[in-house]
Amino acid sequence: MDVRMTLGSMVRGGADPCHRYATDGSLWRTSRMPAGPATFRLTQRGLHEVTCEAWGLGAEEVVASLPDMLGGRDDPAGFDPRHPLLRDAYARHPGLRVPRTGRVMEALIPAILEQKITGKQAHSAFRWLLRKYGDAAPGPAPAGMVVMPTSEQWRHIPSWDWHRAGVEPPQSRTVVTCARVANRLEECVGLPMEDAYRRMRSIPGVGLWTAAEVASRALGDADSLSVGDYHTCKIVGYALTGKPLDDDGMVELLESWRPHRYRVVRLLELTPAAHPPRRGPRMTIQDHRRH
């Protein structure tokens, strides 16, 4: 099991205030558990041993959740890489697991912020909001680390601060709506996967893409597929067919890999040779904060 690779999908940009990679190779994270905030430090000792130190009111809950968080329930049985590039990626990344953090809102809110904008914009907005409304990380956390706001805090962020962060009204409304029913959404962890998707998608503004982004992080769904992602269908198409695909083409192509479609996508994301070369300018970043 590889800590950095398994939890890498949680990190929202290089300056994510909930994560820090230390010079000694350890990973610091913060989380808001049912009992309260927690800071924890994960240190890898070979592929089969991880040391965890935790601080704060939620420390015991973090330690108890660690096996799931590091992919303890992930079962790759039946996964057939078969494509040469996938076989190579699978062999190169034996420690990749699909995590199950059990923290739905922690995965849902940044996913909502990432809807229909560039990753750079979303990470900047997430960082701005956490630094203003998040709580200081408990324990000896590296400077600048914070814990995500409570659902109550998300609900009461004023409209002008959403604007200052660069978050558009549809996304801020969706965050606030989700925060109002946070307890019901957190219950998705105990539901059958189909029911969990249905409950998340019952919230206006939470579609298949957003629900899949949550399921691959909080629910341990190795089959989640982020249909509608700007990059995923291009990476999958280029890697497995040599040409770009649209969403329908990607879904059709990956059908034979059920129930491991997210595993396929994650392996390709970690493989530089799977990414198509850039042949044009990056997507233009629209900034309306001065308007």
Automatic annotation (TrEMBL):
Coiled-coil regions, chain positions: none
UniProt keyword annotations, A-Z: DNA damage, DNA repair
InterPro entries assigned to the protein according to its UniProt record, in alphabetical order: Alkylbase_DNA_Glycosylase/TA (IPR051912), DNA_glycosylase (IPR011257), HhH-GPD_domain (IPR003265)
Record-listed E.C. numbers: 3.2.2.21
Protein name: DNA-3-methyladenine glycosylase II
CDD domains: ENDO3c (cd00056)
Gene3D superfamilies: Hypothetical protein, domain 2 (1.10.340.30)
Domain of life: Bacteria
Catalytic reactions of this protein: Hydrolysis of alkylated DNA, releasing 3-methyladenine, 3-methylguanine, 7-methylguanine and 7-methyladenine
SUPFAM superfamilies given in the database record: DNA-glycosylase
